[in-house]
Design goal:
Blueprint: E1 4-8, E2 13-19, E3 25-32, H1 35-40, E4 46-49, H2 57-79, E5 83-86, H3 96-112
Helix pairs in contact: 2-3
Length: about 120
């Protein structure tokens, strides 16, 4: 059996669990934007509070995406799973979430290139 990383991801709260080849929990973590949530969820192993200080609400979401991008890269690199299982979208979303992902990637790329946007 392979090492499996389970991921429940969202913009505000994300959780990850790494199962070893015997199916036992090897590692787990919780990511949140809110300090209070991080403090209440100490049982969720490693936890990170997103250090988002951007005042502009439009840019705040993009900065959050960039931070989450780095966190995901760090988690994948640290855990080195053989398989990643990501929770699917809510039933009957009719593609809205997938379209949002594409828009988010476009905004993130523009921000990373220093291109103004609205």
């Amino acid at each position: 059996m392979k090492r499996v990383l389970g991921a429940d991801v969202s913009l505000n709260h994300s959780g990850f669990v790494l199962l070893n080849e015997d199916g036992d929990v090897e590692d787990y973590c919780f990511i949140t934007e809110k300090a209070g949530d991080a403090n209440r969820n100490k049982e969720h192993g490693t936890r990170w509070k997103q250090p988002i200080k951007e005042k502009d609400s439009h840019l705040k979401g993009i900065v959050r995406l960039a931070w989450l991008d780095q966190m995901l890269r760090n988690i994948y690199e640290r855990t080195r799973p053989d398989l990643i299982v990501i929770e699917g979208y809510a039933f009957d979303t009719h593609g809205a979430h997938q379209m949002g992902e594409v828009g988010g990637l476009a905004r993130l790329l523009a921000w990373q290139r220093g291109c103004p946007q609205r």
